[in-house]
Design brief:
alpha/beta, 21-stranded parallel beta sheet, 17% helix, membrane, Oxidoreductase, transmembrane, transmembrane helix
Length: 767
Amino acid sequence: MSTESALPPLDPFAGIPDRRYEVKASELLKPGNAGLMRWRRQATNAPIVYVEDAYITGTLDLRAADLKYLFRFERCRFEQPPDVREANLLGLVFRKCWLPGLKARNMRSRNDVRLIRSVVQVDGDKREIEETTVQRGDDRERGMPNAAVNFTDAVIEGSMVLTRTVISHPHGKAIHADRLVLTGALLAYRMVANGEVRLPGLRTGGNVNFSGATLNNPDGFALNGNGLHIGGSLLCEVDNYGPASQRKRFSATGIMYLPSATVDSDISLREAKLTVSQHGPIAVDAWKSNDPYLDPRPALVADRMRVDGNVELSDGLQALGTLRMVNARIGGSLRLAGAEIRVERGKTVPYYDRALHLDGTEIGGDIEATSLRVPAGQLRLADVTVGGNFLAWNSMFRHPGRDVFSARRSKIAGNFQLTDATIHGTLRLQGVDVGGSINLAGTRLTEPGQRATSSYSLDVRTGRVGRDLTLRDNNGRPFVAEGGVNLDGAQVARRVDLRGSQLGSLPPFGVALDAGDVASDEFILTPSSPPTGRIVLRRAHCGTLSDNQQFWAASDGIELEDFRYDALKKGIPLADDKALDDRIEMLRNAMRGYRPGPYDQLAHMLRAAGNEEHASTVALRKQQFRYEALARGFKFFGPGVRLWSWLQRSMVGYGYRPVRALGWLLTLLVLGSLWFGLGSDDCVTDKSGRYVANGERCVVNQQDTGLQWNPVIYTADLLVPIVDFGNKSRWYMHGPDNWVAAGFTASGWILATTVAAGVSRMLRREN
């Protein structure tokens, strides 16, 4: 049955219709079987009640009815909200209808429930409807939902379709569907909801699809899905139906609230637009606190969420407000590629300016954040576990003066790749555990956060890296760390690579690179320019060291105590004395003072490589620098220390040039022979009888008259200790000869012991 055939189709959205379209709701019911009057039967015997082009006045009351009919309303306008509470129906369809509300709590439908291209609008200023609008006060029933559409505890053995429907409740919820059960899907393509869409405890067998939908609830939850369980995917993305010019992206003004949600497949918010006012009221009273781990103005809250598939927050997603997924579990990958996230920058502690908050989350696949843009806010990933890689090349993170990226104690099974990125703030990876490599090639880190104890652009303290730590240039773009790099205590299995890097530092700390206690197979310390600040390599160790002059020319020197390296990547040839001299000079200039350890380490490395001569040269120069430092320290006695140093260096090379001692022994032998051979003694011509002359000299004992004078043998006897050639104590010497003989004896002891020490040192090395 329908209205008069002469009437044109009704436009239910044009206001109150002409009275000719009016049908009283009471006329739809009459006594009889099931109390139902069928207006129009289908051509078949299908149990469908079809009402079209009607203005239904009064209340369509099917509450608690048990009817084996599917109700379909098309181009109808309702004066009062239809009431199907506790009803058991075959199905319910509203197509191109206008409703002031819909009461459907506890209803049961054995097929789909559809509101397609319809409008559900509650006029809060003029209308107050029981169980649709809020009821307050002592004289009214408490707990009634304030919603335009109420499907609380409903069970639908099919799908719910809300395609292109507009649901508005300016002072309450648009949809109230706590614990709604759908065996099928929830399809809300291009739906517009003005007011909260409340779906906590929702259970679906299929997808929940809000693609192209617009959810508006600026001061609260745009979508409340606390504890929902979706048997398929949650899709809040672009609806591409129709021409390309008509594609429509998902938009939510208000909080997407999905804590403890379970999704059996994927969550996709590709190209979505999420907006939460950064200055408006805080939606939840518990968030009004000084707890620094809260995010009081989030765009997405998904704490403790469980997703078996991927989470797509990518491909043009725009979020104004925090994306928060704390202690979540994602079976697949988290994609943030091409997204843009921003928050209002906090001005006082706690700042509450996290753009992405993933603390404690476990991700089975990758975190893909290529070309991610964060114009303002922090990315916090503390204690996150990633089963794959972290990929974020060509990204931009901006949070100047603070930690822009914090991933303390996170574990990444694959690689951490943040290449060619632009980062304003500190990149903090303290205690991170990466199974593969950390690659920051070509990344620029500027405007680091400053703390009371340190200020670094990159902090990888106590981190563990399974392969390489790459902080080098990439395709002509250098790695830049304006505030320096902190690697203190990091363990890198293969290589620490700083080729072509540019390292700076900030006052008052002035540390460009802190690699203390770092252990790695290879250090490549070849920056493109001298680091601005101090380099710390205390107790660091590497198998192979590759360096350049720019590295050793760090503006504030290098701390090298107990820095050990087993070999130089570019060794020093035995014939290249200049290369050794250059390296010793670089060491000396870098330390800004005398330290024995670095010279001992260089000598040990050369000796292990079989370059004994150069090792001895290093040891000799070490002693030279030692005496120079002592001379500066003693001040008044400095000239004497310098003279003693010169004597040792020139005569015996501080014991590292024993051949010089042999040369000096031969020289002294010649000089002594000439002195004693060309000289004469007055005792020979003395007639007093006090002396016994024997040729050119006098003997001490009269019994030695048979002894033959030989100046060469006498000089040799003076110079060679322990061994006695039978001359030095038998010839009488006095005056200058006596002093010269004593000097030769002392010189002989010094030079002979130096030769013996050099020989024994050589024998020990051979052993």
